[in-house]
């Protein structure tokens, strides 16, 4: 008996079923930007409202929702922006950050931050001595000394005359009962507010004007904190050698380092990268 062949000349044994797999649905899921945009719309938030709450500028919010992270200033800032936008929209930021790391070469390894941070910090220019004020103060001191000498001489002559005549009773004097006044309490100093051991680096952050995203690392790259610091709350970090900081909204932060308030004036919405060691933060 002959075996029949198909019209194309192949026998049934030669024909094999197709093994092509259906396309994966993994590639059909929304992108990072689409996920953030959908979450924002579902939360009934506008781009302006999200920008005002997170301090992320409006053009950057639009760019991230279009999956353009080039305007964030680097992968570290892009991760911080994704975290803040996701939390504002009410979704978990960790899966989005994991996808971002996978699409951009993985989580960046910690790098020694001190040389770069110290180069970027702009220290205030030292004030020159005010010679005019010094000259005025010297003249006032000389005039006061001359007047005091003249007055003291006339007072000596009057005192000797009064001693010869004897003391006169003062009828108008009224003896008042002594009252004990409470000693004023000294105002707390900056060092009393943020006291810190000298053999460690102690950094205290307080979100005074608004909330801020912050990241803190120890000298060995260990992550101490990475998240949102709500308005009115504080965080304190310590390390034996160095504390590295990234402030997402530096203008809202009050900063104490090693017991001393840092007087640098940061602007709202400004991103600052800082590094501190033991000793006076203003020295050097």
Would you mind describing this structure in some detail?
- The protein has 284 residues and is of the alpha+beta class.
- The chain contains eight helices and eight strands.
- The longest helix has 35 residues, at 131-165.
- It is elongated and about 100 Å long.
- The model is unreliable at 113-123 and 185-194 (pLDDT under 50).
Briefly characterize the structure.
The chain has 284 residues and is an alpha+beta fold. It has helices at 32-42, 47-54, 58-65, 75-89, 93-103, 114-120, 131-165, 190-193, and strands spanning 201-207, 212-218, 223-229, 234-239, 242-247, 253-257, 260-261, 272-277.
Spans of at least 5 consecutive residues whose pLDDT stays below 50 are 113-123, 185-194
What is the beta-strand fraction? 15-25%
Work out the helix count.
8
Distance between the termini: 101 Å
Query: What is the radius of gyration computed over CA atoms, rounded to a whole number of angstroms?
Result: 36 Å
Strand order of the largest sheet: 4-1-6-7
Question: What characterizes the major β-sheet?
Answer: 4 strands, antiparallel
In total, how many beta strands? 8
Classify the helix fraction into a percent range: 25-40%
- Tell me the overall shape: elongated
């Amino acid at each position: 008996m002959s075996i029949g062949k198909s019209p194309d000349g192949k026998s049934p044994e030669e024909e094999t079923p197709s093994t092509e797999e259906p396309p994966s649905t993994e590639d059909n899921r929304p992108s990072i930007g689409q996920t953030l945009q959908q979450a924002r719309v579902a939360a009934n938030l506008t781009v302006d409202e999200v920008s005002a709450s997170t301090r992320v500028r409006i053009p950057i919010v639009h760019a991230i929702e279009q999956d353009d992270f080039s305007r964030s200033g680097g992968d570290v800032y892009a991760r911080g922006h994704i975290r803040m936008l996701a939390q504002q929209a009410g979704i978990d930021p960790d899966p989005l950050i994991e996808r971002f790391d996978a699409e951009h070469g993985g989580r960046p390894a910690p790098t020694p931050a001190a040389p770069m941070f110290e180069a970027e910090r702009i220290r205030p220019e030292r004030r020159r001595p005010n010679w005019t004020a010094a000259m005025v103060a010297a003249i006032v001191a000389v005039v006061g000394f001359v007047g005091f000498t003249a007055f003291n001489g006339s007072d000596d002559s009057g005192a000797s005359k009064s001693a010869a005549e004897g003391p006169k009773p003062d009828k108008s004097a009224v003896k008042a009962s002594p009252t004990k006044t409470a000693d004023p309490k000294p105002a707390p100093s900056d060092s009393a507010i943020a006291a810190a051991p000298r053999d460690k680096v102690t950094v205290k952050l307080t979100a005074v004007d608004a909330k801020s995203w912050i990241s803190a690392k120890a000298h060995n790259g260990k992550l101490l904190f990475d998240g949102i610091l709500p308005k009115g709350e504080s965080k304190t970090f310590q390390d034996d050698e160095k504390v590295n900081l990234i402030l997402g909204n530096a203008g809202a932060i009050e900063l104490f380092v090693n017991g001393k308030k840092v007087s640098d004036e940061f602007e709202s919405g400004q991103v600052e990268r800082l590094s501190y060691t033991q000793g006076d933060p203003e020295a050097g």
